[in-house]
């Protein structure tokens, strides 16, 4: 099968739920996203800031990052920039109340999986996460 993942990768994914980092300065948003992901069998790891995420020695264990854009001290775009500067290829999904088209374009140019404007439908977010975890662009249909 062309494009199939080696069995060891599939087994690893089945034995260990993906870890999704949630970075948002709004505690209610963090809690809601964590609850949604946990119901879906994913491990959610909440962070109140980009700095807290970067300082966590477990950050490299994350399989995807869901982040807000507008946050004090370090916004989501700066977080994405710092990750890329470190050589990280961690998939990033932005969820924000901002309708800043320039910021959106910059995020996508720097490799963001997608950009959602709040409120985001649960199924849309879960679809983007599945795409990110499968290594696809969020706008590509799933392969066979």
Number of strands: 5
Structural class computed from helices and strand pairing: alpha/beta
Order of helices and strands: HEHEHEHEHEH
Mean pLDDT: 88
Q: State the name of the first-level CATH class.
A: Alpha Beta
Beta percentage is: 15-25%
Major beta sheet, specifics? 5 strands, parallel
CATH architecture: 3-Layer(aba) Sandwich
Question: What gross morphology would you assign?
Answer: globular
The number of domains is 1
* Assembly annotation: single chain
Unreliable stretches: 1-13
- Helix segment count? 6
Summarize the structure in words.
By secondary structure, the chain is α/β, with parallel strands linked by helices. It has one domain: Response regulator (Rossmann fold, 3-Layer(aba) Sandwich), CATH 3.40.50. Helices cover 41% and strands 16% of the residues. The protein has six helices and five strands, in the order αβαβαβαβαβα. It has a five-stranded parallel β-sheet, sandwiched between helices. It is globular, with a radius of gyration of 15 Å. The termini are close together. The N terminus is likely disordered. This is Response regulator. Keywords: Phosphoprotein.
List the main descriptive attributes of the protein structure presented here.
alpha/beta, 144 residues, disordered N terminus, Rossmann fold
Short description:
The protein has 144 residues and is of the alpha/beta class.
SSE topology sketch:
Blueprint lengths: L6 H9 L3 E5 L3 H13 L3 E5 L2 H6 L8 E4 L8 H10 L6 E5 L4 H9 L4 E4 L4 H12 L11
Parallel strand pairs: 1-2, 1-3, 3-4, 4-5
Keywords: Phosphoprotein
Protein name: Response regulator
Pfam family, one: Response_reg
């Amino acid at each position: 099968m062309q494009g199939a993942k080696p069995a060891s990768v599939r087994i690893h994914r089945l034995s260990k739920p993906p870890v999704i980092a949630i970075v948002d300065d709004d505690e209610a948003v963090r809690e809601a996203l964590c609850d949604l992901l946990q119901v879906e069998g994913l491990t959610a790891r909440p962070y109140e800031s980009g700095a807290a995420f970067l300082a966590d020695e477990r950050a490299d264990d994350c399989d995807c990052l869901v982040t807000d854009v507008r946050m004090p001290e370090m916004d989501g775009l700066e977080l994405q920039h710092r990750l890329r500067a470190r050589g990280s290829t961690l998939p990033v999904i932005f969820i924000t109340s901002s309708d800043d088209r320039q910021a959106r374009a910059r995020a996508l140019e720097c490799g963001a999986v997608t950009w959602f404007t709040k409120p985001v439908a649960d199924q849309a977010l879960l679809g983007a996460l599945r795409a990110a975890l499968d290594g696809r662009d969020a706008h590509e249909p799933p392969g066979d």
